[in-house]
Structure formats: C-alpha cells, structure tokens
Predict the structure.
Amino acid sequence: MKKTLACAGFLLLSAVGLMGQTADTIPFLAVMEPKNEIPAIADTSVGNAIIWVHVVRDSTGTITSGSVDFDVSTRFSSAVTVTGLHIHNGAAGVNAGIVVPTDLSGTNALAIDSTGRTRIQKQVQFPASNVTLATIRDLLVNPQGYYVNIHTTANGGGAMRGQLLPAEMKVLMGLMKSSNEVPPTGVAASGVASVVMLRGRDASGAVAAASALFNVDYTGFDAAAGNAFTGLHIHSQTAGNNGSVVINTGIGAGAASVPVDPSGTGNLNYVVNMSPLDASWATAGINGELNTVNSLFTTPGNQYINAHTNVFGGGVMRDQMRNTEKLDFKVTMLPSNEVPPVAGLTATGPSSVSIYVLRNPDGTVAAGTVLFDVNHIGFPAGTTFTGLHIHNAGPGASAGVIFPAGLDAAANKVVSETGNGNIFRVVNVTNTAALDRLAILNQLVQNPNGYYLNLHTTVNGGGAMREQLSPALAKPSIGGVAAVASTLTTVAPGGIMSIYGNGLAPVTSGLDGFAGITSLTTTLDGVSVTIGGVKAPFYFVSPLQINVQVPFEVAAGPQPVVVTTAGGASTAFTVTVAAAAPSIFIVDTNGTGAIVKNTDFSLITSSNPVKAGDVIVIYNTGLGQTTPAVQTGGLVVPPSSTTFNNTGTVTVTIGGQNAPVAYSIASPGFAGLYQTAVTVPAGVSGSAAVVLSSGTTKSNSVNIAVQ
C-alpha cells in the first residue's frame, strides 16, 4: 500500500482583506505569427510578446487606473519598418479595432535591420481617451478575446499577431557557486540568480508559450585574466550531475560572448521566449523546453542554472533552481509622508513590493529578490523619476538607501509624459563593501515598519513621496486556537494547531523558501510561539493566523499559548492539551474530508467516489506520539518497507459502520501529520460520515462519497 502524502495543501489556511488602494500586476503572453493575420501572410517571421497589465484597485476591488507594458521580441525574416504595435479586441480569425495602442505610427516608426531582431518596450496608461477601464476589465476576464498585432510599412493591416494567453508567474532563485560545478572549478566566483518564469495557456488549458527572465548578479571574477561569459543556461539535471542545456540565453563564444565587468562584479540580464515554434519545445524526454518549463514550475530542483566562461567552458558557477517564498507589502506612497512633507504635489503611489526569499534551515533569509511594482499617479506631465529605493528608517525619519531599484538621473531615469505610469523592476539583494544587505533584509522581515519605499524626481531629489512598508507592529493578540484540521479546540502533543488573532506576525510566510530541511524552525520572521513554555515549530505565519506543531514535550491539561513578535508578547491564551485529540483535515466548506484513494492518491469527491472494499487513506492530526517515537518539528523520515512510525490504536467508522484499519502512521516527510488507511465497509452509500477515534476521543466528522 502507498504510504506517502501526495499534497500538503491541506495544512495551510489564510485570510486576505482589502484596505484602501492596492496595486497588482497580471502577466500575459502571446506568440505572434504572420499566418494568424486575416488574410494570412506567407512569411517566416515570428514575435513573442509579454504583456504586463498593472492595475490599481479601490477598497472594493474595482480597477480605477493602471498601465499596460508591451515587451515584444521580434524575429522578422528581413529588414522592416514598424508602424504600429497594438492590442485589438478580436478573437482568433477575426479582425477588430485597436483598443490599446502604443505610440508607434507612420510618423513615429521603428526601423529594424536585416537581422529582423529587436526588442520593443512600450507603456500605455489607462483610463485614457483611447484606452477605457471597460476594456481593461474585460481583457482580464477574457484575454483570448484580444490579440496583439504589429504593423509594418509592407503590411499596414498587420504583419503578425497572436491571441493573449493568461500566464502564471513563478520566481525561482539559485545561489551560484564554483564549488557546485562538477567537478568544482576552485575559483572565487559566485552569483545570486533569479529567474522569473512565465507560463501561458491556451483556451484548452495547454501550455502554449513561456518566457524566462534571467537576472544574475556575479562577483569574484578576475577580469584582468580576460574572462568573458560564453554561456548562461538552465540545464536539466539534479545536483552533482551534469546535464544538457534546455533554456539558452543566447550568450555564446566569440562575438556572442559578454566580457566580465572590469571590477569583477556585474549583472547579466536576459529574456528568453519559448513557444511551439522552437524546435526543442516538444522534444521527448527531459531535453524539451516545454518539459523543462513545466518542471521548473513543479520540481525546480531537477534543473540548474549555470554560467560558462572562456576559461571554464564546462561551467564556472552553478546552483539548482529553488522555489522562493513571496513576502508582500502593499503601500500607498504620499508626498505628505516625506521629511519634510512635499507641498503643492497631490500625487499618490499605490504600490506593491514583493520580496522573494530563500531560507536557511533556521528560518533566516539566505537570499532575496525584490520586485518593485510602483504606480505613480498625478505627477506633472514630463516628470523625470531619478530614484526608487527602500530606506531603513521609521516614520518621520530619513535614512540612506538600502535596496535600490536601479533608477538614476542618467541612463536609467524614467520620463513620464503624462505624469502617470508604472515602474516595474526586479532586483537581487546583493551585499556591497559598505552594506550587508542580506543582514538588513533579515531585520526588515522582522519589523518592516522600520523601512520605507521612496520615489525620487528631478524636482524632489530627496524624495517626492514615500510610505513605510507596514504599520507599526502592535503587541500580538490571540483570539482563539483550534486543531488546524478542524474547529476542535483540544489539541494533542505532536499535532498541528492553528492560532487566530491580530498582529500575530509582520508578514505572511510558509515553507516555500526552504529546501532540504529535516526539521521545522521555531523562529520565523522574528515570530516565536510557546505552548506550556516550550517553543513550537512553524508551518505558517501571518498577521491573522499561525499554524504550529504542538511540542511533544508539552504535558496534558490546560497550557498557556504565547505569541511573541518584534511588537512584544501576547497575553497568554489557554489551550487544552490531551494525550490524543484526533482531527481529520477538511478541504472545503461542505465538510469534505482530506481522504484519498489508496490506489492513486486522488481526492475522493462526488465525481470520484469509492465503493465498498476500497482502501482509503485519511489525513489527520492529533494522534500523539508514535512507536518508534518522532521528534518535535522533525520531518518524518520515509520508512523502510517494514518499519513505520505507528500511532496508538485507532478506530474508524464510515456511515456509522466499523471500517477495518490497515495501518495508522506518522506521514513521511511531515511533522504532526498522520495518515490512517481503512477499508470501506459494505452497506455504505451516498455521502457518508467518517469519524476517527483514539480510545474514547472522537474526531470531527467529515464526508466522503461512496457509490
């Protein structure tokens, strides 16, 4: 029988609320081809478009303004002059009018040389006379009813086009080291790499396009030795093994190489677009781009990012790709928050700062990438933005720049013709000789109120508007506790427990940023929880809810629960601890149990029922210590074929009838999670209640479908 858990999604709950203005960005992809034009054009040109829709919403969630960013890479078959780049509101096979135009036109044309290759980046604001809020709202709901079209002098009605594809976004990271190479190179080079993955699906749900945005900050190179990068790739292979290239940035030998910065420290930034038009897209096995894209979304550790040089052609530094954890900060910058306040400027800045992090086993931040998503509204026409930063000071105080977004007063300035727009930047957290930014990031996640986002202009060089990343931390307040699997308020040592309240954590964090851990941490973002005076290991923290494992060391009876953050320690809340407090996980508001078929671990639902004689697996918590014993916070080691961490004796009823128990064990790979396998008894049908008991203590009742 299978004895592993297919999904850990049952463990986390969250609450989200809307407060004031909020900023979000929604990505889309498109594969543009001449054959999609009406009538079709016989040509081999192709284009790939990334469309970023940046929206500002009011307190009700209604979109009130925003921007559309076009990022289009072309491979025309010959030299062309581009006279238009637009989004049209038409389905595939239909010509329709322009609803989101860029400024490219016959009088503002773009010449592309005989290579046919260029990258076009344009931004359009809404609402405007030619872009309505109704269009944007409909585009977000029905993206495949819209297409992006590029026009040329030779094909004024459109040279190539493609329907918009809704895209998923995932940020991966790697800490590249020479010691990770096989064999190690023995040089001092290292790098912090982030890869933003986008995966677009067509109307059938199939992946039809993808993009990878590489951002690598490197250091420790000897530029005097004539080093040049000859490759930056993602390879398909696990740690300690060499694999073939599957996603290639285009850096190569000779003329395609990139010299190492004279300082030995620099940045590599590339966009790679992929589609079924690429020969390797659907190649069988692990070498196809499509398979790699999907694997990067599900099992990124099966791929590694590698940089190559003319000295180390096989690779100079690399690391496996890793999932990141997203920490979100929603702020609205105002001129009145500046020190001193900026008078006479009525601008606002609804913004989102997302920090993607990797974690060390103890919960501290090992690496980070900051995504700045800033909407500037109400500035005078022709405003030049010269800086966007995070500074480390509290309200009413000013301090130096800690995390820059890459804007400056020279080549990296942003000029807004209307005064409205969006600034969207992805920046890795890297240390400098003067700043240990990683240490500062670890402080930020514990108390974000001590840091502010600031936007600078030529007129207001010291800052035009700013806002703290979060309100001041108040002392946490506990409103209630319960077994995470249900609403039962008695818990057991080793079980998973939810704590509900306010101000329980400065940010929302889980386990996504951890890799290869064998035990859960007892400190996360400066938050700690004690139960009966014993520190509890974390599964999840957020301002409104925390999920922890009750330590095995906690004695039965009434026990105090205390949450401590940078804002202080909560008043103790009393929870009842019992030797066993069984609780079955639920997956929806109808009381459907987290119960799966043993044959394929598919969730049992009304459309996937079981029948008498089938073996099912019930996921639960609160069964206490096992034999042999497991440690508090320790992830249960997958057992051998004969040795398991068995729970005490349990009984199960389905539809009121006894269900023979095949086994009941601590679930491998988790802490506090148990799985109990039983056989569905005869004579049960329809929606049947499942109850699990340990001794005389019964669990909550959940439902399964029996045919």
